[in-house]
Amino acid sequence: MTHRGSRLSAPVAVLCVAAVLHPAAAVADIVGFTSPSRNVGCMLDDDYVRCDIAERQWSPPPRPAGCPAVTGYGQGIELQATGPASFVCAGDTAMGGGPALPYGQVQARAGISCGSEPSGMRCSNSEGHGFTLSRQGYTLL
Predict the structure, then answer these.
(1) Which of 5, 50, 65, 110 sits between 20 and 30 A of 81, alpha carbons compared?
(2) Which residues in the chain belong to E strands, given as ranges?
(3) Each residue's pLDDT tens digit in the chain (141 positions)?
(4) With b meaning 16 or more CB within 10 Å and e meaning fewer, what string describes 120-134?
(5) In which domain of life is the source organism classified (predicted)?
(6) Which of 12, 9, 14 has the alpha carbon at shortest distance from 96?
(7) Per the confidence metrics, is the pTM higher than 0.70?
């Protein structure tokens, strides 16, 4: 099938990419939120969370061999419902995906929770793995 002159709008394109990259979760099930400073943006579904950062005063660890040079690396951290957190290797972003999560509030889904703190965003899974992310630094838990 050929589409001539057909272009997807940005919101439709984002929804299509989200559905393809994470087909197990319906697009409507993904919750987006940001830090009150709007410097950290997160996307959370039932078994995965990803938080990206706009401005930082630190550098991520070296790019792993399996992360292609054509993608971004280190712009955020991701966490599955099980296992440890890792740096993001992707060409998209989790920034701007939802409203601010006030300090002291938590977004949680099926074993993953993220809390907004004045010191940054903190996410963890039921195994105790997780991360903190802020302008000043990061921690993999």
Answers:
(1) 65
(2) 31-34, 40-45, 48-53, 72-80, 86-90, 106-109, 112-117, 120-125, 130-133, 138-140
(3) 333 333 333 333 343 344 444 444 445 589 999 999 999 999 999 899 999 999 999 999 999 999 999 999 999 999 999 999 999 999 999 998 899 999 999 999 988 999 999 999 999 999 999 999 999 999 999
(4) bbbbbbeeebbbbbb
(5) Bacteria
(6) 14
(7) yes
